[in-house]
Design goal:
Residues 142-294 form the Palmitoyltransferase DHHC domain. The protein has 340 residues and is mainly α. 48% of the residues lie in helices and 9% in strands. Helix 2 (60-80) crosses helix 6 (250-284). It is elongated.
Length: 340
């Protein structure tokens, strides 16, 4: 729901980028110019660290996702669930309602939590500007579990995210749909948001398909609400029952059903892919970042020329400071897609 609109567009964009350059030459979000061979060894990060997903600027994906969630809620609970027969109607209200509410809470909590490392939280003053990282003095942002930008010791799995410009505890990835990093502090809220989205969208699609098919088989089954007793024309239908009945046409009901099912199926495919990927990671006890690193090592062993390139540019390509969206190289493995 909140995580899935425009995911296909982002996936296709990244697929195109991956075919324009190899996976190690991808355009990653930078905290400063990558002129490591020039005299400019100063990497200038954004002036201030982000607190959470509500820190300005909000990401376009985040806003569109919230709007799409609202659309699904209005269409589902305002148009199609009220058309179900009485017994199924209340069951749908209860089950899908719980899933939508659970998803909304989990998603908002995942946005709101500050995922920073514990020592960063203890010391951090978000109103103070971040220092400038000098690659002439230090090769990496984090060395020996000390971050030279946050100026604190951090946990063994902490990474410095360039988008948030702070060290994230048990870093997993930076999510554009949350506009926040996903780490140890909010990973389970993120996971619950994805899982509830998959179940909620799946059940909503079933409801809409039932209404669509039943319209052609036995439309009387969809007109059991008391408000339909005052409707004379068979082509006249009611939306937003029972609170605010609004007349509409059968064509309108069917058109919205087709559009919503198509969007829902596309998002369900991609969200299901995302859920399966994270179930795979949980089974392997890996984070997204660790999976990315492992995939790069694997490709290096298969491609000696690529391995040489990485060896020469390790401080550029693998430094966590340079990893903004933290997406691993594209692969043919169907589990290689996740929230960006």
């Amino acid at each position: 729901m909140l995580l899935h609109i425009l995911v296909l567009e982002e996936f296709l964009k990244r697929w195109y980028d991956d075919h324009q350059m190899n996976c190690y030459g991808r355009r990653l979000r930078r905290t400063g110019p990558e002129q490591l061979n020039s005299r400019n060894d100063l990497v200038s990060p954004p002036q201030h660290s982000r607190v959470n997903g509500w820190s300005l600027p909000l990401h376009t994906f985040q806003i569109v996702a919230l709007l799409f969630y609202t659309y699904l809620a209005i269409v589902g609970f305002g148009i199609y669930i009220p058309l179900l027969p009485h017994g199924w109607k209340y069951a749908a209200y209860a089950v899908i309602g719980v899933l939508f509410a659970h998803h909304l809470v989990a998603h908002l909590v995942a946005i709101t939590i500050d995922p920073a490392d514990q020592n960063v939280l203890a010391k951090k003053n978000y109103s103070s500007p971040m220092p400038v990282f000098d690659r002439g003095k230090q090769k990496h942002v984090i060395q020996n579990q000390h971050c030279y930008l946050c100026e604190v010791d951090v946990g063994p799995k902490a990474k410095h995210c360039s988008a948030c410009n702070k060290c994230i505890a048990d870093f997993d990835h930076h999510c554009k749909w949350l506009n926040n990093c996903v780490g140890g502090r909010n990973y389970w809220f993120f996971f619950n948001a994805v899982a509830s989205a998959v179940l909620g969208v799946f059940l909503l699609i079933l409801v809409i398909l039932y209404v669509f098919i039943q319209y052609f088989v036995n439309p009387a089954e969809l007109r059991t609400a008391p408000q339909f007793e005052r409707v004379i024309e068979n082509n006249t239908w009611l939306a937003f029952l029972p609170v605010a009945p609004a007349e509409t046409t059968a064509a309108g009901i069917l058109a919205i059903a087709v559009i919503t099912v198509l969007l829902g199926m596309a998002s369900l495919l991609l969200l299901g892919h995302l859920l399966i990927f994270h179930l795979y990671l949980l089974g392997k006890k890996l984070s997204t970042f660790e999976y990315m690193t492992e995939q790069r090592r694997t490709q290096n062993t298969r491609d000696p020329e690529s391995d040489v390139e990485i060896t020469e540019n390790t401080s550029v390509r693998m430094d966590p400071l340079q990893v903004g969206s933290c997406s691993p190289p594209a692969s043919r493995n169907p589990s290689s897609f996740w929230c960006l």
